[in-house]
Design goal:
Helices cover 76% and strands 2% of the residues. By secondary structure, it is mainly α. The protein has a single domain, classed as Hydantoin permease (Orthogonal Bundle), CATH 1.10.4160. It is globular. The two termini are 42 Å apart. The mean pLDDT is 90.
Length: 456
Amino acid sequence: MSEQRTSIHGQWTNRTVFILAATGSAVGLGNIWKFPYITGENGGGTFVIVYLLCIALIGLPIMMAEIMLGRRGKQSPINTMIALAKDENRNPHWMWLGWMGVVAGFLILSYYSVIAGWAMSYVFRTGGGMFIGVTADGANRIFTDLVSDPERLLAWHSIFMVMTMIVVARGVKNGLEKAVTLLMPLLFGLLLLIVIYSMTTGYFMDGVRFLFTPGSIDGKGILIAMGHAFFTLSLGMGAIMVYGSYLSEDHSIVQASILIALADTVVALLAGLAIFPIVFANGLEPGAGPGLIFQTLPIAFGHMEGGTLLGVLFFTLLMFAAWTSAISLIEPAVAYLVENKGFNRIYASVWIGGLTWFVGLGTVFSFNIWADKTLSIPFLFEDLTFFDTLDYLTANIMLPLGGLFIAIFAAWVMSERSAKEELATYPKVYSVWRFLVRYITPVAVIVVFLKAVGAI
């Protein structure tokens, strides 16, 4: 039983540290890079309302389930699922759920690191005055020059992976815990500074109205909101499960999950409040798509008073958000090697980090020397680059399936007695959670999955 297990990796000092760590895992490029532009593309206020409902109905129940499994198993996701299946006298093949999460996190980090390298590069490009007075063509050319240069991308990718490996190698208390207790307050502080600046643009209320005034939304927008609500909380990739394994039994999973979901959502909304007033003040297009961060905002930073400093702060914020997510993505695989192969954390971190770095070369080359080399899988996708293939397989297949099977295991495979031992501090909340995770959440995740693979 879980109460007889202890994690060999240690545990979080207190609940606040766990919430900071899990929020750091959840808060990443998706909140600051993706959420503003998909809001812009899908009409603003109504999209935000649908997104918040989906967080409550999809994201939060699965997060509670994933933390519960992690804390009960007290090991890496693979060994946790083996142990829990044994506890419940179930088929040991449930370990493949753990494997899928570990592999998904590994693959995501391999390309996440390359995109994080873009943010690191832009800290120095902005600080060096490269965007002062830049035109739209100029900003596009600067971005194109970066991604078309494999040596430069490789250098930033390598630096970011080394930063990630150093933190994870130091362990739970000296590495993960110290990093998140420093980086997360800095991240919130930087974001608030940019929001305060946005209040001075004269267009802050335009940003507020854009984010919170209900408008029209179509079926596609609803599906995008459902998908983002699931992905933004780092679910299905082993990160939240392994972080949950370091959580003491004294702390409420329900309270922690709600606080993490709230913090993650607040960061996404603050990012919108930081970005859209700047976009409107400079006559830019709020639905500019993925290029909003790297090709549109630099134009604004290059033409505003104090824009160089603001731009440096913004891309530093983006880098910190990526870093806190990256250490959670590599942790499940490192924990597995420590548990099963007898590696110490330094060796395990170097081994996994090096392998991740190597796979990341495919993403580096996808934007330049391999740009014309594509892959196809019948009935799923065709003519995707290496980077696009990894992104498709993880975001559209592995993570939704991981979340679905987490919900199934927690609600249908694990005994109600076991689930109550972990979650029943609030009986009414437990009843709502069990209903959602049994009936509503799996259906919603299946819809997200079918939409992602083009079946609907």
